[in-house]
Write a structure and sequence with these properties.
The chain is mainly α and 213 residues long. The chain has 9 helices and no strands. It is elongated, with a radius of gyration of 26 Å.
């Protein structure tokens, strides 16, 4: 019996192109969750919102939510950061007073926003009793914006808009404290005229007018 050489050729079969796009599905679920938590905060108030309710509204499993976020508060903070109208970069023009006015207005816009305001107010209140949530709030929403403030004010010191020894930590507290005090204690929020007066007095204390040198 004669032997025959038999060769085998491996043919690669392309994978189906109809496989679901996992990344797209994950992003869709994430956005549905962020929208759901803001909607529920408006409808029920922050304190009454549960992770179960968020999952049901978003159409995702509770297990999926806990894979992405450790708590309701963490979902809220990401939702606010994702949708907040505060500019991602600090305004930087030749007019320091105008830059500060625009910055403070962006913060007030979040407080006044009927969609974001209830969520932020609730997270801010809960952070007073939850040290971990307070840390997340600082890291997610506050710290990088404080860094931007310090960069802008440092530039103002260097170009003569402020005294060279102006205390930027005090400046931050002077400008932000009235805004947060009014919000937390339910006083009327500052209008544009009040912001102008606040900034004028703050800059005077810091040894400058805000005009470029």
């Amino acid at each position: 019996m004669s032997k025959q050489n038999v060769s085998f050729r491996v043919v690669s079969v392309p994978r189906p192109t109809t496989r679901p796009n996992v990344d797209r599905r994950r992003d869709s679920s994430r956005r549905a969750t962020l929208s759901a938590v803001l909607d529920l905060c408006v409808e029920r108030g922050y304190a009454a919102v549960t992770v179960d309710a968020i999952a049901a509204r978003a159409g995702v499993s509770k297990a999926t939510i806990y894979r992405w976020w450790p708590s309701k508060g963490a979902i809220v903070l990401e939702a606010i950061d994702d949708a907040a109208p505060i500019p991602q970069t600090f305004p930087h023009t030749d007019d320091l007073a105008a830059d500060l006015h625009a910055w403070l207005t962006g913060i007030l816009d979040v407080f006044r926003d009927p969609y974001l305001g209830p969520a932020f107010t609730g997270a801010l209140a809960e952070s007073q009793l939850d040290a971990d949530l307070a840390r997340q709030l600082r890291e997610r929403l506050i710290d990088h914006r404080v860094s931007q403030f310090n960069e802008r004010m440092t530039a103002a010191r260097e170009n003569g808009q402020l005294d060279s020894d102006a205390d930027l930590e005090v400046a931050l507290d002077v400008l932000l404290s009235p805004v947060y005090r009014r919000h937390v204690l339910h006083y009327p929020l500052p209008d544009h005229a009040y912001l102008d007066r606040l900034i004028k007095h703050a800059l005077r204390a810091l040894g400058g007018t805000g005009d470029s040198a």
